[in-house]
């Protein structure tokens, strides 16, 4: 059997297969307070499998960290019951579930940040978007963080990690990808600081180290993962030498012995596939620098997922879009069953429709045989 369907140790947990749910912000919290909704618990419960790993969509660690109206947050008591329901739904099926923690940094708008300017390591021209009640709008002008403000943000990450623990999650993932705040510090296109947080890579990873150490202080390193996107373009992010930068990051993360390194491959920008036949490359060079489990994500199908794990470049594969429309994706991949196409128009907000109403393969078959029987009955009665 392909290694993709074999057990693996990921930090503190023994997983029974390597098909992971990638974090996907689906904008279905209850407003105005970003309360995780019952349909979110349904969504994650449906996608859980015994010994499988899910990474729950990015949750903002503070008001200032928010980017998109309807996206998740974890910074106040009113949100806790919703989070508990999600962790419980996954555990009921024997799954493991990590929560991704995010600060959006400059990818935001004053309407999302409580009326204050979005923050970033440096002020660099940016034409990205945020999502407010008026839809996707240009991001507000941002300001550079004062060095004295940084400890409070690190503390927000720690407090959110603590909340995730209280809600019953199995671990947390630091969102250091896709051009959000941690990534803005790492990459030199967005970090032009001249203090201890900018300049050489040793300084540009200082914010990553501090937030990571905050999460580890709550969870232990074996229950913390980190997501990076070395070739990412989302959020206007760029670096003058991504391979050198992210090789350094991978070595650094290796030294902490975290549960896993989660790498977005270069084939996707946000939710769009850019290069259809582009081979995965980031894990190829990162593998040399990171000795723990690597999760690869971005544009995988069954064949490429099996191949990347067989090659040893990655140990697990996270699926986003295919998992959105196939709640039993690990089962379907294992048995080479057809996939239900995903529905892009339902990605960013909406109801249960095309979100938590997708059927498993078994349910589809049961429905088809009921329909066939009904047709046969009708024919008999005609
Ligand atoms: C609707 C949607 C929301 C997403 N939200 C997040 C997110 O909250 N955090 C994150 O790290 N990546 C996010 N992503 C990226 C996915 O995790 C994944 O890397 C991407 O979809 C590529 O994988 P795929 O080709 O299997 O879909 C999102 C993608 C989609 C389609």
UniProtKB/TrEMBL annotation:
GO terms for molecular function: FMN binding; oxidoreductase activity, acting on the CH-CH group of donors, NAD or NADP as acceptor. Residues 4-339 form the NADH:flavin oxidoreductase/NADH oxidase N-terminal domain. InterPro entries: Aldolase_TIM, OxRdtase_FMN_N, Oye-like. Belongs to the NADH:flavin oxidoreductase/NADH oxidase family. Signal peptide: none annotated. The lineage of its organism: Bacteria, Pseudomonadati, Pseudomonadota, Betaproteobacteria, Burkholderiales. The keyword Oxidoreductase applies. Its cofactor is FMN. The keyword Oxidoreductase applies. GO terms for cellular component: cytosol. CDD domains: OYE_like_FMN. This is Alkene reductase. PANTHER family: NADH OXIDOREDUCTASE-RELATED (PTHR22893), NADPH DEHYDROGENASE 2-RELATED (PTHR22893:SF91). It comes from the Bacteria. Keywords: Oxidoreductase.
């Amino acid at each position: 059997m392909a290694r993709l369907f074999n057990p693996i140790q990921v930090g503190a947990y023994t997983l029974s297969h390597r098909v992971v749910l990638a974090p996907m912000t689906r904008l279905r919290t209850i407003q105005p307070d970003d309360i995780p909704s019952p349909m979110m618990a349904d969504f994650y419960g449906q996608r859980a499998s015994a010994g499988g790993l899910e990474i729950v969509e990015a949750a903002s660690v503070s008001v200032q960290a928010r980017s998109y109206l309807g996206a998740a947050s974890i910074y106040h008591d009113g949100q806790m019951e919703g989070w508990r329901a999600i962790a419980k739904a996954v555990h009921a099926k024997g799954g493991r579930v990590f929560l991704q923690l995010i600060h959006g940094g400059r990818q935001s708008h004053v309407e999302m940040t409580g009326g204050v300017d979005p923050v970033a390591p440096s002020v660099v021209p940016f034409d990205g978007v945020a999502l407010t009640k008026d839809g996707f709008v240009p991001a507000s002008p941002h300001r550079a963080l004062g060095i004295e403000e940084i400890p409070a943000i690190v503390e927000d990450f720690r407090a959110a990690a603590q909340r995730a623990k209280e809600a019953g999650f199995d671990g947390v993932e630091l969102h250091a990808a896709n051009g959000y705040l941690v990534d803005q510090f790492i990459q030199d296109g967005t970090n032009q600081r001249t203090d201890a947080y900018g300049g050489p890579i040793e300084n540009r990873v200082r914010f990553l180290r501090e937030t990571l150490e905050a999460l580890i202080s709550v969870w232990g390193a074996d229950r913390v993962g980190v997501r990076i996107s070395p070739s990412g373009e989302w959020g206007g992010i760029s670096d003058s030498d991504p391979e050198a930068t992210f090789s350094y990051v991978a070595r650094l993360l290796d030294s902490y012995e975290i549960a896993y390194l989660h790498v977005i491959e270069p084939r996707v920008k946000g939710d769009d596939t850019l290069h259809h036949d582009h081979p995965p490359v980031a894990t190829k060079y990162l593998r040399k620098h990171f000795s723990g489990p690597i999760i690869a994500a971005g544009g995988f199908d069954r064949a490429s997922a099996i191949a990347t794990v067989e090659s040893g470049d990655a140990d697990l594969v996270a699926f986003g879009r295919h998992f959105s429309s196939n709640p039993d994706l690990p089962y379907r991949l294992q048995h080479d069953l057809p996939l239900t196409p995903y529905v892009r128009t339902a990605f960013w907000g909406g109801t249960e429709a095309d979100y938590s109403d997708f059927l498993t393969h078994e349910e589809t078959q049961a429905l088809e045989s009921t329909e066939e029987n009904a047709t046969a009955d009708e024919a008999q009665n005609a």
